[in-house]
Amino acid sequence: QVQFVESGGGLVQPGGSLRLSCAASRSDFSIIAIGWYRQAPGKQRDLVALITRDDRTNYAGDVEGRFTISRDNAKNTVYLQMNTLKPEDTAVYYCNTYPFRSRSWGQGTQVTVSS
User: Fold this and answer.
1) Which of 6, 68, 75, 114 would you label with 95, given CA atoms 20 to 30 Å apart?
2) Considering Cα of 17, then 29, then 56, then 36, what sign does the dihedral take?
3) 29 vs 86: CA distance, rounded Å
4) 19 - beta bridge partners?
5) 45: closest CA among 35, 33, 55, 53?
């Protein structure tokens, strides 16, 4: 079962940027699609961005043009570059396979956008 460790979150002002990292435990990481998900307080966990094994990407409408997902298969790592952050981007961010696997959720990384 693949496991993930997220990092890179923090407190940032509106309009700022953060880069999240997601390290995966599997050596066959390169053949699976990976998604970044987020969960704000009191809300469900939603898909934010995904990247397929052949590097096709897809984004939720409210982050398209501001977030960029990428992967480094040599490092078993997926990144989420987040620019022009807004207060509504505040959430715990998780990575997982796409579609997600319930037993693969990590601890997530908190992103707080506030002045």
Assistant:
1) 114
2) negative
3) 31
4) 81
5) 35
Do residues 50 and 35 touch, judged by C-beta distance below 8 A?
A: yes
Question: Which amino acid appears at position 13 of this protein?
Answer: Q
Cα radius of gyration rounded to whole Å, the chain: 13
* First-to-final CA distance of the chain: 40
pLDDT in tens, 7-47: 999 999 999 999 999 999 876 777 889 999 999 999 999 99
Q: CB under 8 Å to 95, separation ≥6 — which residues? A: 4, 6, 22, 24, 34, 35, 36, 37, 78, 80, 106
Q: Is 83 helix (H, G, I), strand (E, B) or coil?
A: coil
Rounded Cα distance between 55 and 90, Å, is: 26
